[in-house]
Amino acid sequence: MIARIILAALIISFFAAAAQAADAVVGYVKTAKGEAFIERGETVIPARINEKISKNDILKTGANSSLGVTLKDDTLIALGSNSAVTVSEFNFSPGEGNLSLVARMLKGCVEFASGIIGKLSPESVKFSTPVGDIAIRGTRFAVRIAE
To answer: What are the structural domains, with CATH classification, of the chain?
Structure first.
């Protein structure tokens, strides 16, 4: 009996951890050219097609490089050369009304096209740059921060 309880607890823990890991994924790399990387904490991962993007990852490109990602709500973020962006907040549970997206541009040139969160709850989307914030209203825009 005790062995069954322990086994059940281990199975529940495994599936809870798997669900939490799946929730940490906010999107995927769709295109990558040249020097495109994902910084996840102290780890630097080459950006390859279908590579997972997690909350707080820093997406970076080098000279003559580009990177395109699609978030789970179909938001598109494209980075040009020498650019960096992070998605610091992403909640996409429309059935529960839990919607939010906060992206922060660190440098370079970025094109952004809002997805489902921007359409259902535009006030829940924020795109920050070093010089100000951009309000999202079902928006598509490009921004470049000069050095």
So the answer is: 27-145 (2.60.120)
